[in-house]
Amino acid sequence: MARKDAYHDIVKNALEKDGWTITHDPLHLEMGGVRINIDLGAEQQPIAAEKDGEKIAVEIKSFVGGSDINELEKAIGQYLLYSIVLANEEPDRKLYLAVPETAYYGIFSEQAVILLVKNQNVRLIIFDEFEGRIIQWIDEKNTKKSSNN
After folding, report:
1. Which of 135, 74, 78 lies closest to 104 in space, CA to CA?
2. Is residue 102 within 8 Å of 96, Cβ to Cβ?
3. By percentage, how much of the chain surpasses pLDDT 70?
4. Mean pLDDT confidence for 55-74
5. pTM: predicted TM-score of the whole model, two decimal places
6. Do the Cβ atoms of 125 and 58 come closer than 8 Å?
7. Is the dihedral of CA 25, 51, 117, 66 positive or negative?
8. Is 135:146 a contact under the CB 8 Å cutoff?
9. What is residue 48's three-state secondary structure?
10. What DSSP character marks residue 149?
């Protein structure tokens, strides 16, 4: 079984507070001979009749210990692999990379990383690792604030 990230339970609880139902912990997928375990699968129930439910998968990274560049390389590599498998196996589920606020304002504020995230269409969930809440969602189209601010 894959080792859980240091912030796994913090992100899981923050998603639940934000109205998400955790459907998989972890989300197991396989394509050909490639098996992956994405940290969480979640669904949000429709709030209004005209809004469809949305499904997400969340890969959580802590960026604690070691080199931030090494952690970034590993996180982006996993994100790209997972997004390809997810697009084939569960195309209705969007992949997000959850990172702590300290990493977002640290390594993710560097110009090269900003361009990397933008060019690779990396969706981000920024979470407060101390208060256990989601601060911001960033996807390829827009930025939205968490409802539990």
Report:
1. 135
2. no
3. 85
4. 91
5. 0.87
6. yes
7. negative
8. yes
9. coil
10. -
